[in-house]
Amino acid sequence: MSETDTPSHQDSDDTRRRAFLLDQLSVAKDRRLAMGPANAAIPAAIARELGLSPGAANAIRAALAAEGYMAVGKAGRTVTYTLTDSGAAHLVTIRQFVPRQTAGNVIPPSNDTVRRARVSYLLLQLLRSERHTLAGADANRFDAVGRSLELNAATARHIRGELAAEGLISVARSGRAESYTLTPAGRLHLGALSFHDDFVFSLTGKVLNDLLEAARDAAKQFESTTAPAAAEPPSADELRAEILLAFDELSREAHADTGLVPIHEVRAAIRDRFGPGLVRHDAFDEAVLALWRSKRVRLTPIADRGRATPDQLRDGIAGVGETLFYLEPAHAAAPA
Predict the structure, then answer these.
(1) Nearest to 39 by CA among 64, 23, 18, 56
(2) Residue 313 CB-half CA count within 13 A
(3) pTM
(4) How many angstroms separate the CA atoms of 166 and 185, rounded?
(5) What is the pLDDT of residue 185?
(6) Per-residue pLDDT averaged across 20-42, rounded?
(7) pLDDT tens for residues 232-255?
(8) In sequence order, which residues have a C-beta less than 8 Å from that of residue 53 and are 6 or more positions away?
(9) By the 8 A CB rule, do 20 and 98 touch?
(10) Which domains, ranges and CATH numbers included, belong to the chain?
(11) Hey, which of 36, 152, 161, 261 has its CA 20 to 30 A from 185?
(12) Closest CA to 2 of 66, 89, 84
């Protein structure tokens, strides 16, 4: 995997073009678009603002494919582009550059409060539904609160894709229809959320009881991850378990939005509990790689080394021509 540098002021437009084209795939069905429809779906205002002619868009997609952020397929004369997992992870780092008017009428949140309220709203939708499952057509019928959050079908589908990537919901497809189910991890996440006073969610007594029970379960899980340190240093198996606990806590508390937990933060959590001996590269790195090989976690390289300090980079794990910098849930197949 190649790495890209932080965009300078002079090439910020190129970063915006790349962010737009990656985001365009992220909201498409199966994260895939054919070349013709993809170019036709670029709004005229965006094309003028960014200079995204079909030829320019195709050239940028070719560069993104060369970096592993897109996969290119061809059937007859039809060329298709598919967003890769690396591309989705890279998009997280440059999402702030996506123009507000995006393909498919996906509306970015106006502020962080709205972003968090949207997640709460969509998860509560499922908690209120029978068996915590809702068909796509029903899920996209928004009440006054949903409309106040500027939710439309395309925006909600985009957010649900992110929630599914974090393992908080599952998506079932039948033909072109989708249904969504709240996962146990999503229920715990919902129980740990705080709700902003600006948005009022109506709950029945049963749903309120479900939410309170989820909050109690989330608190119990948090307590289990903060138990006193063991008197004896953990074995190799115990170290892997402690790394998973630290990763789970950080992913729920500090990095719930992206699911990407910097390895240096997990290493620091283990250091705080057991001292420096277990966070040496020979011990800690092998434990993390064992978790990766057993598909308990995924490893993602840092795309922009300029966003990390030298100490943070050193606390990552050396890969082949790259620095493995993030841990994320193993909700998809681990890399080969």
Answers:
(1) 56
(2) 11
(3) 0.39
(4) 9
(5) 83
(6) 86
(7) 677 888 899 999 999 988 888 888
(8) 47
(9) yes
(10) 12-104 (1.10.10.10), 112-213 (1.10.10.10), 226-329 (1.10.10)
(11) 152
(12) 66
The residue with tokens 């969504």 is 180
How far is it, in rounded angstroms, from Cα 3 to Cα 323? 9
3-class DSSP state of 107:
coil
Report the DSSP beta bridge partners of residue 81: 33, 72
Beta-sheet strand order (sheet of 133-135): 133-135, 177-182, 169-174
Q: How far apart are CA 291 and CA 106, in angstroms?
A: 36
Measured in residues, the chain has a length of: 336
Tell me which of 188 and 63 has the higher pLDDT.
63
What the block records as the tokens of 325 is 């910098």
Q: Give the N- to C-terminal CA distance of the chain in Å, as an integer.
A: 13
Alpha helix (H) ranges present in 226-285?
236-253, 263-274
Q: How far apart are CA 1 and CA 204, in angstroms?
A: 49
59-68, 192-201, 239-248, 268-277: which range is least confident on average? 192-201
Structure tokens at 183: 């996962």
